[in-house]
Amino acid sequence: MGVSFEDFVREVYPFVEMTPFHRTYYRLLEAFARGRVRKLIVTMPPQHGKSLGATTLLPAYLLGLDPDQRVAIASYSASLASRFNRRVQRIIDSAEYAALFPETRLKQGSKPVGYIRTADEAEVVGHQGSILSVGREGSLTGNRVDCFLLDDLYKDAMEANSPLIRENCWEWYTSVVKTRMHNASRELIVFTRWHEEDLIGTLSKLEPVVPFRSWSQLDHLPDEGWLLLNFEAIQRAEPSEVDPRRVGEALWPERHSVELLEAKRRLDPVRFECMYQGHPSVAEGLLYGDHFQTYEELPREVVRRANYTDTADAGDDYLCSVSYAVDLDGVIYVTDVVYTREPMELTERMVAEMWQRSDTRTALVESNNGGRGFARAVQRLAPRVKVEWFHQSDNKEARILSHAATVLHNLRLPAQWRQLWPDLHAHLTTYRRQFRANRWHDAADVLTGIVEHEITRPKSRPKVRFIK
Q: Which of 118, 194, 284, 462 is the most exposed place for a label (fewest CB within 10 A)?
């Protein structure tokens, strides 16, 4: 089998930090190098070693395993692609590399005569292999490619947000990249996501893309389609064999702590979800965006303090419990929130403590999927609260979409709600109009339920009015 990719990295780049997620990344790159994966997409946040693994170390390893391979590196600019190429050449020139792969060597100076070696192309002496670099929209006429490595085809958000550049990138990919490939060619796309309609987003609409969660998937991959590994900067997905981090853990805490990442998210939650979480969206497709109204202090005259709770429907869902106050004009002020994926035995006490803390008098709890039992348990912990449960049978999509404007117009959130409830803020401000594009509906569903109960269906609310 020969040297593993991880051992190769340790030999030629002994100073590389080898965290658990890097080991996963390198293990998957080795599977790609050995032909177990033909079409691979890896997305990860900036400054996490994406390019070092995929377009510096991997090309040298590929040529070491098979010096007859023709490898091409592409990036958003020819100069950046050339920089990757030069780094690969330096690795191949090293004594450490020669000890591992003595058959793979490049031209030195003017010898041997007849072989090409420039910053953009180098041929393996005595073999048919080569390493070629090209910028986006560059030409590859006459070059057969066995393995194509595409690393960040968009320079920044401005490029990715340009429909013209996205269209040109897609045209280049289909007319240049694909035409240089053959039946056995392999493709690796490694990106920081910028836009939902970037190359990865477009490919996902046209070809099967399978999320990578278990190593056993490598044994039965379909002939067509892509394997996708997305490393979230802050883990939001359920732990898996491939990424066993608990929810809320940072990908590389030694370099990018949760505190640092949360600060970045507060600056621009939409961009953060795209670049750092791998969940891109565009502002024009958002249902609420960042248009929620906020308040600094509650009004003096509050006529009702209530709560609306939706328990988690499935293991990946959030329990969302929102306490609020209503003023004389019917404006709704969110005062406290529990938004979590903790198990029910913990959330019962969390919600009960919030009800007491926020002086909640009445609480509505959806009875779907165990909500009635949850309501009884919480009422035992907060006996002063009048608890009602009900079954929500109306279509969720229709409810959320039709009441979006009412939510934005009649509901107020604390001025610091982004800091108070970062998950809630992220999920609401990035919630899409295209219902099926959203992973979590819990927060939007509860805000919709509150305005339904307080505004659009006033007869359903309790008759008793409590004074602050």
A: 284
Q: What is the pLDDT of residue 465?
A: 32
Residue-level pLDDT at 203:
92
Position 28 scores a pLDDT of: 97
Q: Which neighbouring-strand residues pair with 324?
A: 306, 334
Work out the number of other CB atoms within 10 angstroms of the CB of residue 147. 26
Average pLDDT, the chain: 90
Q: What is the pLDDT of residues 369-420, one digit of tens each?
A: 667 888 889 999 999 999 988 888 788 888 998 899 899 999 999 999 988 9
State how far the Cα of 162 lies from the Cα of 156, in Å rounded to an integer. Answer: 10
Rounded CA gap, 407 and 287, in Å? Answer: 11
Give the distance, in angstroms, between the CA of residue 1 and the centroid of all CA atoms in the same chain. Answer: 34
Whether the Cβ atoms of residue 352 and residue 309 lie closer than 8 Å to each other:
no
Please identify which residue in the block is written with the tokens 């998957």: 28
Q: Which residues contact 179 (CB under 8 A, 6 or more apart)?
A: none
> Which run of H or E residues covers position 378?
helix 371-381
Q: What is the pLDDT of residue 86?
A: 96
**Closest alpha carbon to 143 in 125, 127, 123, 126:** 123
Q: What is the 3-state secondary structure (H, E, C) of 92-143?
A: HHCHHHHHHCCCCCECECCECCCCCECCCEEEECCCCCEEEEEECCCCCCCC
Residues in the chain: 468
Burial 165-192 (b: 16+ CB within 10 A, else e): bbeebbebbeebbeebbeeebbbbbbbb
Query: Does residue 149 sit in helix, strand or coil?
Result: strand
Nearest to 73 by CA among 158, 3, 142, 143: 143
| Predicted local confidence at residue 463, as pLDDT | 38
User: What residues does 106 pair with on adjacent strands?
Assistant: 124
Tokens of 269: 């939650």
Q: With bands split at pLDDT 50, 70 and 90, how would you rate the model's confidence at 314?
A: low
Summarize pLDDT for 86-140 with one digit per residue, the tens. Answer: 999 999 999 999 999 999 999 998 899 989 999 999 999 999 999 999 999 888 8
pLDDT band of residue 464 (cuts 50, 70, 90) is: very low
Backbone angles phi, psi at 135, to 5 degrees: -85, 160
Residues 6 or more apart whose Cβ sits within 8 Å of residue 242: 24, 212, 213, 214, 215, 229
